[in-house]
Amino acid sequence: MKGDIEQPKFPKFMAYLAEKGMDVKVLTMMLNNKGYDYKYMTVLRKLKGETKLYWEDIVAFADASGASESIFFD
Question: pTM for the full model?
Fold first, then answer.
C-alpha cells in the first residue's frame, strides 16, 4: 500500500541516534573513524532489517555511538 510508513527495525537505537543529533551517515563516519570497515548502505540495510545484524555489528554500532548493546534488545 502506498504511503505506508516503514517502522525501523531498532526504534530505540534510531531514537538514540536522533537524540544525539546523528543519522546513519554520521554513524557510518564514526564507525570508520573507530577502525571499523562499514559502507553507508550496509549500515542502513542492517538498521532497517534488510540484512542480518550480527553480534559483532551490534558491538561496533554501540561502540561508535556510545550506546549500550542492550538498546538493541529492549
Answer: 0.84
Provide the residue range defining the domain that includes 39: 11-72
CATH number of the domain at 31, please: 1.10.260
Q: Are 58 and 69 in contact (CB under 8 A)?
A: yes
- For the stretch 2-55, pLDDT in tens is 556 666 688 899 999 999 999 999 999 999 999 999 999 999 999 998 999 999
- How far apart (Å, rounded) are the C-alpha atoms in residues 33 and 53? 20
Instruction: Determine the angle formed by the axes of helices 24-33 and 11-19, rounding to 10 degrees.
Output: 80
Residue 20 lies in a domain: yes
